[in-house]
Amino acid sequence: MFGTIDRLPCLGTLLSDRTFEIFNPSTGELLAKLPDMGIEETRAAISKAHIAQPLWAALTARERSDILWRWHQLIVDHADDLAAILTAEMGKPLNEAKSEVSHAGAYLQWYAEEANRIYGETISAPSADRRMLVIKQPIGVVGTITPWNFPASMVARKISPALAAGCTIVLKPAEQTPLVAGAMFALAHQAGFPEGVVNLIYASDGDAVGRELCSNPKVRKISFTGSTEVGRLLMRQCSDQIKKLSLELGGNAPFIVFDDADIEAAVHGAIQAKFRNAGQTCVSANRFYVQAGVHDRFVEEFVEKVRQLSVGDGFDPAVAIGPLIDSHALAKIESHIDDAVAKGGSVRCGGNRIGKDGTFFQPTVLADISSEMAVAREETFGPLAPIIRFEDADQIVHEANDTIYGLAAYFYASNLKRVWLVAEALEYGMVGINTGRMSSEAAPFGGIKQSGIGREGSRHGLEDYLEMKYLCMGGI
């Protein structure tokens, strides 16, 4: 559908003789064959980035900004094509794919602007013959690894601040969804990035590429989005060189509905927070806590809305939920349902695969859930919403915090005192209050505890790609 390796962009890479195949998860259709790169190709891309980095950093902030602006405009101009590629390789509904491409463009626009806002500072010296200053410089070559669930926006969110800061990039997209990254890099080439500044690695073996990125001393920083298990591995691999990392890892987001909440708004927010991208988002609501006074009404209205969600091929305009990414995702959601039912949980709607082939699953609501069930402790990453009834408003915050993860949390309440107290008490890097969606290029995205290190987006995201240097000038 999208061609073979001779027509696909591989900026800054060598072409391997090995290939791997990309399939549409909705139909099983073969989409493309790509060069299967490994350590040799990754090392070559790193060397190109290393050579290009001083020249890229030497450009003025305005010159780097102008190229990022051109890339942003090309993304906007080709948004429909990029969305179609994304839907074909990942499966999400086309409208969601268009929204994601728009989000990717927004990050490029934001950091095109932020490139001009890298400021130093002056410090009052202790003596008249000295001057003390702080300047900020790009960290150097950055190795980035992006996930399959948001294959366009994660590319832009990771590399646009690095490029704005004056860093060069070696990017390895997820092996399931590399095509939209390739298309975006082709547009980057058209935008005018100098040779070696942006480098793309196609690979079916992420371990080999990751090891080279972590061990190669020319790479000064790693930025990764994915599972906490892989994040731990990358930290170990980077430890010998004390290499800087930005990690956006797993989550186990609570969604709390207090008895003073606007229930209609809470149901709407729950649909957004749970079923966007078939529940395959790191900030997806994973545990629903609903206070006893509104529990039955919430469950009834929520189930009614969930039953209206259509599942199918993402190119069908009537479809709200696409396929899961692979058979392993299907097996995990089924194991969580089986465990919950065996321990007293009840299926209020859904609960089954759709069809014998493919990876479609019914959007599912479970009730009568308790904390010892796997679905209350583990991230499902699928269209499964387990609901837990609670009585004590103070105790539920403690229960919501009782996890190694701390990426995102949501709650609905009207009482202003409760809003402030709960927002401050939740141990999460991001908290959605009376909303089910909170991502924005202008806001810092990231978690605490074992959900990650660092922030992406906002002005803070730029700082992760800059080194601070103190200058002390004597003899003035």
TrEMBL record:
InterPro entries in the cross-refs: Ald_DH/histidinol_DH (IPR016161), Ald_DH_C (IPR016163), Ald_DH_CS_GLU (IPR029510), Ald_DH_N (IPR016162), Aldehyde_DH_dom (IPR015590), Aldehyde_DH_Superfamily (IPR050740), Succ_semiAld_DH (IPR010102)
Keyword Oxidoreductase attached: yes
Active site: 248
Domain of life: Bacteria
CDD domains (UniProt xref): ALDH_F5_SSADH_GabD
Family label: Belongs to the aldehyde dehydrogenase family.
Pfam families xrefs: Aldedh
Keyword Transcription regulation: no
Protein name in UniProt: NAD-dependent succinate-semialdehyde dehydrogenase
PROSITE patterns registered for this protein in UniProt: ALDEHYDE_DEHYDR_GLU
Keywords linked to the UniProt accession: Oxidoreductase
